[in-house]
Fold these 2 entries.
Entry 1:
Amino acid sequence: KAGVTQTPRYLIKTRGQQVTLSCSPISGHRSVSWYQQTPGQGLQFLFEYFSETQRNKGNFPGRFSGRQFSNSRSEMNVSTLELGDSALYLCASSPDYYYEQYFGPGTRLTVT
Amino acid sequence: AQTVTQSQPEMSVQEAETVTLSCTYDTSESDYYLFWYKQPPSRQMILVIRQEAYKQQNATENRFSVNFQKAAKSFSLKISDSQLGDAAMYFCAYRERNTPLVFGKGTRLSVIA
């Protein structure tokens, strides 16, 4: 099976812009989670979707949003980008929301 | 909220030797999963091993094994016959039903040739 794919892999945006990141889970996986990884804060949970429904949400401002489509692909959007949003954004999928998660290669977002 | 603590920010091991990475967690639940993930310089997070809390037997995956002490809330990872490719950040993670993964801060492992 193909692994989790994330696009784009690298992104440079300017403060104030918005960005959309995409994640395609492993075939058959219905749960998709998003994490933000920074040197200072480590791995922080953003949100988790299961069968197009948001199951859990982390402690991030409303500028961060996501959705899941009927084919389980997921997108996350960050509006009004801030310098502090520069991070590696990781997507992970699992067959259900209680199993181990398999991660994609991440999207490196740089906000200037 | 559940917390995961990795008390060793950095560790090193000689090639072919054995190293143990420590992890403790805090929970009042009895049903949960524990995981070790590896993140090499490529930044791809790789699942190394998982342990179901209801299983008393420690999980093993080739050169990787865990020492799961449920009462002590301890979940250490042992890497035997260390290889250069084992050099990476290792994250301990916890998950219970209906909640997201909770990660520790990580342990950076260096392997010395």
Note: Chain A is about 0% helix and 55% strand.
Entry 2:
Amino acid sequence: EIVLTQSPVTLSLSPGESATLSCRASQFISSRHLAWYQQKPGQAPRLLIYGASGRATGIPDRFSGSGSGTDFTLTISRLEPEDFAVYYCQQYATSFTFGPGTTVDIK
Amino acid sequence: QLLQSGAEVKPPGATVKIPCKVSGYSLSDYHMHWVQQAPGKGLEWVGLLVPEDGKTIYAEKFQGRVTITADTSTDTAYLEVRRLRSEDTAVYYCATATGTDAFDIWGQGTMVTVSS
């Protein structure tokens, strides 16, 4: 099973700042099979990024994804108040697994 | 969209069958996934159904205790969880991948509480 590790666990930032979230896989993943989701309290997850760097429909361009192999990054430039949430990475190369999540909260 | 019922309360040892109705397209069009989220915890993939041939694949953790089925006449998928225990208390989401294999459409989730 491919295990995903996310860091940091919590990121405390102010609106307008940039956030950099990391996702590391226990083995090589094709970048085509890495996604990022955002989840707010009481809501279902929302797809942000697919294929490591493709933005899903309706996702603002302040969200960007990058990386390859075992190391992937989600960057949120200029945090808006609605961006404070939990973010999960997911691999769908071999079965499906999610990382444990990174909470982006207001400093 | 994917439409799910609100909540279920079941005693330990019981069985729950959670529906997920597809609206706006046909259930047969895309694979259907189920994801578990225990209170305050992360997301865990449960399994998937390939509607066109009924094939199912389950995560090892859930193998043998869950079954995913589909009723194509009503465009409704189901997740059945048997021999419920307290650790099964969670929100269960159905989700589909309509473009790439990432989950781009999610139901609103069904909260299942296992309690005597």
Note: DSSP finds no helices and eleven strands in chain B.
